[in-house]
Specification:
19 helices, 3% strand
Amino acid sequence: MAEAAGATLRRETETARESNIATPWLHVGVFLVAVLVVISRRPDAVTNPQFWAEDGLLWFAQAHNLGWWRVLFQPETGYFCTLPRLTAALAQLLPLAAAPLLFNLVAILFQVLPVSFFLSSRFASLGTQRSRLLLGFLYLALPNSFEVNANVTNAQWHLALLACLVVLAEPARSLGWRCFDFVVMVLSALTGPFAIMLLPVAGIAWGWKRRTKGTLILLLTLAAGVLLQVSAFLRTGSAARMQGSLGANPILFAKVLSSQVFLAALIGKNNLPYRHSYIIYAVLITIGGITVLIYALLRARWELKLFIVFASLVLTAALLHPMAHAPQWLELLSAWGVRYWLLPMLAFVSALVWMAGNHNPRAVRFIAVVALLLMSVGIVREWRYPGFADLQFGIYARQFSDLPKGSSLTIPLNPQGWSMTLEKR
């Protein structure tokens, strides 16, 4: 009798899992819609593409002036940055006028890939299609995320999310999926410092839930990436990164978390840190947000628990070593540095979506639903990001094409005040 009941339960579980697997047409439709969602938040990324900051100054200009093969594995600010280096190498095959569009399209691709992957069959047991689609939309529509929208420099944050999903997903069973996992892991491990924070998460996943050969290969790949990144940082990091005091204190900690992570995820940019009389609200919001994460850590599925751990490690690293002028924590209160909050905000929102499920007590569901409804305020307020200042990149591209060999041209970039100098070869 017990064996029959167990077999019935397994069949029901497998049937439920199969019902959560998206059809190929749904995958195509979701991918295209996701691309349109990203573009709709700043249409000029494709209608008037221009380089953003390091996209031009570092990645494209260095690949053009020095040769892409010479800088492909050259560290920047202490770490290897392979994804933007590869994008810049590919851009050398195109006319200068088309290079910014290529950069933006590559960035949009990596911004959308986590949505498509999360909808795949490898997450079918994690939740219904509807809940995964909802979470994918909230990720794309997340307020307080201008800095990580459609630029290659900050695409590493989306790539880190994708690598974390690879660690949490059901093990790959086909050659195609195994190749996908390996490429994502290698690319992420060699793009920014995220492998350092993801390695312990992958180790826990392997030792706790995923003791397979494929998972071990991914773990070893991450470990190799960590060794390379740490080596690069020890050789170049101290000189490349900004120096200065953190200016850390408990009040600033509460202000940063409340205004830039928890409240910003719901209503977007806010001036809470600058209202001295509102310190008590900053503390209460911080306590509330941390309580949500702790509740999920105690009660949620292991995949969400490990994602919260990963996001927390990323946040800790950002607070300990931000690229900011001193006092660094005070500068983190401004709109600058939004990239640091992407993964912590997403972990907070993911916890709220899980709390809204029927498996939680009614009071918990009510709190989560109210918070998610409040998030609609931030989504509407910050759906459309301001376009880049039109610096007439096309005109400069034509001027550069007419230059004689050996000449150089300085081209202004967004944000205003940035520029890159290209040498005609």
